[in-house]
Write a structure and sequence with these properties.
Elements: H1 2-16, E1 21-23, H2 26-34, E2 41-45, E3 59-62, E4 65-66, H3 68-74, E5 78-81, H4 89-95, E6 99-102, H5 108-121, H6 125-140, E7 149-153, E8 155-156, E9 159-162, H7 167-174, E10 178-179, E11 188-189, H8 193-197, E12 203-206, H9 212-215, H10 223-226, E13 230-231, H11 237-240, H12 246-258
Parallel strand pairs: 1-2, 1-5, 2-3, 5-6, 7-10, 7-12, 12-13
Antiparallel strand pairs: 3-4, 8-9, 9-11
Length: about 260
């Protein structure tokens, strides 16, 4: 009888224990907190910085690169990441009883799937359902055409911009503008300056780390630069990371573009 009671006590204790989670993705870390489950996080990547409280958590890796010994020391039950540079590390974690979830988050469709999966995994179905409805509403909403061609410079050396498989392409479309590199059926592309100059780019969104459009002569040929329509000094994290802040970020960008519509 005592053995049976001890078994029951142990079983209920295990069921009542909260899941410990390590996240190696800024977007997933933010989503976990948004779902009301931030208290489950015990480790993060070095680029997981939002919301601010997560910076207090120990760093357990870089983006998609776990520090194996650190992760094992934190004793999580679940490790989440958009991808893993070395998928083989999952074997070590499995042996330690740590499940790994690879959740790509490259566009709104994949972000929606992340919400659905983490809602189930973290027992946050209600919050996840509300976020899914927000995503669906965002994608279905009607916006007025801006008649603006937008070039989003993700990187400048070499030049990198979003193709139609990127969530940045979706963001531009959801503002009513046109992606200058949207004809490429890829996530990110390296377009030539010659081809871009023929497109009469109206607006440039600059996410590269430097003010390269001020330093290289070729940028001065773009209408966007001539007309002082380069967006660099505004908060972009909400747009670069598919996540809960995306809706507000898109609405803010749309208001900015509205003043320049043709």
């Amino acid at each position: 009888m005592r053995v049976f009671l001890f078994f029951l006590a142990t079983l209920f204790s295990l069921r009542g224990a909260e899941l410990r989670v390590v996240s190696l993705s800024p977007a997933l870390t933010e989503l976990i907190c948004f779902l009301g489950k931030g208290h489950l996080l015990v480790g993060r990547s070095d680029v997981c910085t939002y919301p601010a409280d997560v910076k207090k958590l120990p760093v357990a890796g870089r983006f998609a690169i776990p520090f194996t010994e650190k992760v094992l020391a934190l004793k999580p039950g679940l490790l989440v990441s958009n991808d893993l540079v070395n998928p083989g590390v999952k074997v070590n974690f499995q042996r330690a009883g740590i499940r790994t979830l690879q959740l790509p988050c490259r566009n709104l469709k994949e972000y929606r799937k992340c919400v659905e999966i983490l809602g189930k995994e973290l027992d946050a179905r209600k919050a996840a359902g509300e976020e899914i409805r927000r995503i669906d509403t965002l994608q279905k909403r009607k916006v007025s055409p801006k008649n603006l061609r937008v070039l989003w410079v993700v990187w400048d050396t070499p030049l990198m911009a979003p193709g139609r498989r990127s969530h940045l392409h979706e963001i531009i479309r959801l503002t009513g503008a046109e992606n200058a590199t949207g004809e490429f059926d890829q996530e990110y592309v390296r377009p030539s300056f010659d081809k871009l100059l023929k497109k009469d780019v109206d607006v440039i969104i600059w996410s590269a780390s430097s003010s390269g459009w001020k330093q290289r002569r070729v940028w001065k040929k773009f209408p966007a630069v001539k007309n002082n329509r380069v967006l660099a000094d505004f908060e972009q994290d909400s747009l670069l990371r598919p996540g809960p802040r995306l809706k507000g970020g898109i609405e803010k960008l749309e208001r900015i573009l509205e003043q320049w519509k043709k």
